[in-house]
Fold this sequence. Notes:
The protein is 71% helix and 0% strand. The chain is an all-alpha fold.
Amino acid sequence: MKKRSLILILILAACYGYGQTSSVPAQTAKEQSNSNTHEADTIEHIQEVLAYGMQDEILNTLAHLEQDQFESLQPHLQTLFTETNSSAIRESLFGLYKKYERADLQEQALSIINEYTDANRTLVQAAISYIAKMPPSN
């Protein structure tokens, strides 16, 4: 039995390349620097879109945010939520915060739910969906 287990482990190790070195060369310092510069440019561009973009452009940007970008853009996203009058943008932000399980918008969501008669129906639904996903606060 031990012999079969050892053979199985060796076969799996061979299949998944355990112990092999990568055939892709490591990035040079210049390539890493270019990569970091590109990431910074991307974040700057996203910040500009969030601050000055049209609704469709903002919605498209929000739809394509990756988690690391989402985390680094927190102040900008919260400002956008506070300052925008667009229900579509607010719904999109609720979706993002729900996706990444961030409770930062709970207070705003509860406010929208409490004033449901004055708010857009789909925005209220997005706020309820967001609150339902968040863990209860103490």
